[in-house]
UniProtKB/TrEMBL annotation:
<dbReference type="Pfam" id="PF21686">
    <property type="entry name" value="LigD_Prim-Pol"/>
</dbReference>
<keyword id="KW-0436">Ligase</keyword>
<feature type="domain" description="DNA ligase D polymerase">
    <location>
        <begin position="32"/>
        <end position="278"/>
    </location>
</feature>
<protein>
    <submittedName>
        <fullName>Non-homologous end-joining DNA ligase</fullName>
        <ecNumber>6.5.1.1</ecNumber>
    </submittedName>
</protein>
<dbReference type="InterPro" id="IPR014145">
    <property type="entry name" value="LigD_pol_dom"/>
</dbReference>
<dbReference type="GO" id="GO:0003910">
    <property type="term" value="F:DNA ligase (ATP) activity"/>
</dbReference>
<dbReference type="InterPro" id="IPR052171">
    <property type="entry name" value="NHEJ_LigD"/>
</dbReference>
Length: 301
């Protein structure tokens, strides 16, 4: 089959046109569009669950990761009838709510799926608290050590978290919430945690937002978790060498020095068979008591 060939598949009763199935999207490892769509079908139950009710931003690489890319917020046109959308301001976002929609986006070479922190129609009370650890170095061998320190700190104040790789260089700690605190209150909590970490481990952590001021420290990004901002969705592929994938980890893996590169499109099938979705294992928690504690112990001004 030539690289410029085109065909159709029928999924859940919907017809999807597939173009250039032999186009190489990741040269290393060699992953073609046809292979990518097969992996998306495998990931669909997990991606669809975590992206449900979120505003979706995709990043497209029409010629694979070696080519040019662009962000796609507005729904691509023309869109099939099975694609549903949600309007926010002047942007008409795709709703990632079905396997046909996911494969349609995959055919358009959407290689990354970034979901909004706020849910559609629920902008005040988030359903999770996310602390993003963003390395200043492209290669950061301390990232898992840093994640374990933050996870242990949260556990010491009664908060259980789940660790997720970004699939790029950083990691995120996810704390499901019962929805009893606002985004602004979570920012107060995040700043408290970040400030403590920078004081306890000044050679490892920083809360300096400007990269030029961070040195080689890992940035505790408590500001990113806010309406209108996005995060790489759990199980989203990343357009990076090795076809890495944003993947939840066990704390045992983190303590053993897990490598972000080990979690990718080629290994995820076996991992899901072994673990399932680790994010299902952690229950929503009441965070208002933590907010009250933090607000009482945070200097004013």
């Amino acid at each position: 089959m030539s690289a410029s060939s085109k065909g159709t598949i029928i999924i859940d009763g919907e017809t999807i046109t597939i173009s250039n199935p032999n186009k190489v999207l990741w040269p290393e490892p060699r992953i073609t569009k046809a292979m990518y769509l097969e992996k998306l079908a495998l990931l669909a139950p997990y991606l669809l669950h975590h992206c449900s009710g979120r505003y979706m931003t995709t990043i497209r690489w029409p010629d694979g990761i070696a080519g040019e890319s662009f962000y796609q917020k507005n729904c691509p046109e023309p869109a099939p009838a099975f694609v549903h959308t949600a309007q926010q301001g002047d942007i008409n976002y795709v709703l990632l709510d079905s396997l046909p929609t996911l494969l349609w986006l995959g055919n358009l070479a959407c290689l990354e799926f970034h979901m909004s922190f706020d849910r559609i129609g629920e902008a005040v009370y988030p359903t999770e608290w996310i602390i993003d650890l963003d390395p200043s170095l492209e290669e950061e061998p301390r990232i898992m050590e840093a994640a374990v320190i933050v996870g242990d700190l949260l556990r010491s104040i009664g908060v259980e978290s789940m660790l997720k790789t970004s699939g790029a260089t950083g990691v995120q700690l996810i704390i499901p919430s019962t929805g009893d605190v606002t985004f602004d209150e979570l920012r107060v909590m995040g700043r408290f945690i970040g400030t403590y970490l920078t004081q306890a481990h000044p050679q490892l952590f920083t809360i300096e937002r400007m990269k030029v001021d961070r040195g080689d420290c890992i940035y505790v990004d408590y500001l990113q978790h806010y309406p209108g901002k996005t995060i790489a969705a759990p199980y989203s592929p990343r357009a990076r060498k090795g076809a890495t994938l944003s993947t939840p980890l066990t704390w045992e893996e983190a303590r053993s020095g897990a490598r972000i590169a080990d979690y990718n499109l080629l290994t995820i099938g076996d991992r899901l068979s072994q673990y399932g979705d680790l994010l299902f294992q952690i229950k929503p928690q009441q965070l208002r008591p933590i907010y009250h504690f933090v607000s009482k112990n945070t200097p004013k001004g």
